[in-house]
Structure of RGS10 protein:
Amino acid sequence: INDSEGHPSSSHQTLKGTSKWATSLENLLEDPEGVKRFREFLKKEFSEENVLFWLACEEFKKTQGKKQMQEKAKEIYMTFLSSKASSQVNVEGQSRLSETILETPHPLMFQKLQDQIFNLMKYDSYSRFLKSDIFLNHKKCEEQEETSPEAQTAAKRASRIYNT
């Protein structure tokens, strides 16, 4: 037996989409569509900078080379942590951060601040996201797409019969 995409189906299929997002914030942040929907939600709550900072830190950890790290570290600092930042995040210890740390960057230099923002999202906005119209409407669309081809065919037949 194959699923709609021709892959073997099983009763132990991995969760996808909203089902996976609902299991943990980590799962949500691993899915580009989940991140997109979560950003959409946070934008409405005026806290999109939290997920943008978290994503920037994840990207920063993958940066190679001291010069690139310095440039990215400065960009993160100026965008999210500086007192003049355009998308300032609210983290403890922020006032003690100075531009001098940018001279000797290392992949985990923002880890404590990233963890604070992650926990803020996890224990605050994530639970509200799961109850939001953005999440619930996306879940409903997914569920409608998952209906069997037979049901869709029957629905199309019925609509042709009753719409003529």
